[in-house]
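Q: Convert this sequence to C-alpha cells.
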Amino acid sequence: MMDLIKVSEQPIDINKLNDWLSQLPQDGAVVSFMGKVRSNEKQTISLFLEHYARMTEKVLANIIAQARERWQLSRVAVIHRVGEISANEKIVFVGASSAHRSDAFAAVEFIMDVLKNEAPFWKKERTPQGETWVEAKKTDKEALRKWY
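A:
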C-alpha cells in the first residue's frame, strides 16, 4: 500500500503517474482520472486556485483512507494543482491500482466525488467579463449521495 498526494503549482505528468501506479505485478488494474480546466459558454481563460496547505493534504489523505476501507487498493495517487491554471490545462489527477478493476474504478470515482465536496480549494474563474469566485455545484453535492 502506497499513497502519493501532491498539491502543487507544477504541471501534472500523467505518464509518470500511470507508470508509478502500474509497477506492482499483483495488480491487474490501473484506473485514472484526469480533470482539466474547461472553457465553457463564459469563455473561461483560467482558474486561480487557493488552498490551506496543512489542511488540504490531511483532507486528501483522509479521503484516500476512506477509499481504502471500502476497496482493496494497492497504490493511490491524488495530484491537484493550485495557482493560475489556464483553460485546457490539467488540474487534477486521481489514480488507483488494484488486483481487480471494479475496486480501482469505484475508488477513483469515490475519491473524485468526495474531493470535489470536501477538499479545501477555492476557485476564482477569469473570463473576458472579469473574475468571480466559483460556487460549489449542485451536481457535485448530489454525487455524494451514492457513497453515504
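Helices lie at 14-21, 53-70, 101-118, 138-143.
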